[in-house]
Specification:
This protein is of the alpha/beta class and about 375 residues long. It has eleven helices and 16 strands. The longest helix has 21 residues.
Length: about 375
Amino acid sequence: MQKYYIGTLNNISKVGLNRLTDNYELTDDLDKAEGIVVRSYKMHDMDFSDNLLAIGRAGAGVNNIPLDKCADRGIVVFNTPGANSNAVKELVIGGLIMAARNTYEAITWADSLEGDVAAQVEKGKKQFKGTEISGKTLGIIGLGAIGAKVANAAHALGMNVVGNSVVVSPLLTAPCKIYDSIPEMVEVCDYVSIHVPSLPATKGMINKELISHMKDGAVILNYARPDLIVEEDVLEAVKSGKISKYMTDLADENLINVPGVIATPHLGASTAEAEDNCAAMAVDELMDYFENGNIRNSVNFPAVTVDPKEGTVKACILYKGIEDISSAVKEAVGADNVCGLTDGKKRTEYGYAIALIGEGTDTSALEKIDGVLKVRVIG
């Protein structure tokens, strides 16, 4: 079997890299690499070698990777949704409790005390009296892997859980009323936590209009993406008291030392376990693509998985803007030589298809199809 070279950017968990088999070799020469595993390194200004076939992002967000640039070059970009979900869930639950019990403010105050601390603590602790989360209502926008785990944990702590989601993860086991309308949902919520990707439809979704539907004194938690909120609208709501606290893992210069805002420095996936899980999943995705042509969890090409079939090879075809790839493939290699073709469900103009073609068939014509970006033959 062909040997593949894998480059890394950032420190990638050895638990993940150790999953590479003898068919793979780590390299510091990125021009030589067929695959790259990356965490947060910004790749937008990089020049990609013609050897590069795929990038595995050890994490969920891909803002650091130029997706269209990669797609145009026939470079598949994978991410690892759900691999860090437990780590993020735990941080969100910590944020819920921190908001309810005013622990950050209390710790900051206690750290400033001098002299007879015990006496001052007994006298001053009442200013930090909070509430319990048990019996309160948590509204979750986005019930994917993270949102579902947050819902389950919150329910286990006695919270009522409601949600809004395009797709509901099978991980959700807690009772959860699903609302079609986010404004209607937030009207009943003491806490609102958002767990959706950054898309045109989700950017700025927590804004002045939505906040106007929230309970007075509600808490907003954003441990997902910074652009899901309109920051100035949230800060104004905190300043006015409409929102009692804004809890986020996405600290920036506007969120530091602001009363009512508690911003952590993007700790969501910063656990040893999450880094191991993300790296292992990214490596597995790259190996499955290199060896079998299968695409799972790509953010710039459709998902396609095809089992091998005796007497055939897999022609793995990345393309752009072709409306009928099946007819184009049959015309290129002869319809009688095509034993099956699976075309992934496209979300954009970029497509991916795997054709099972009889052994010995000349596949060179596939690369000449107008719109084909890259062809690999496996088997």
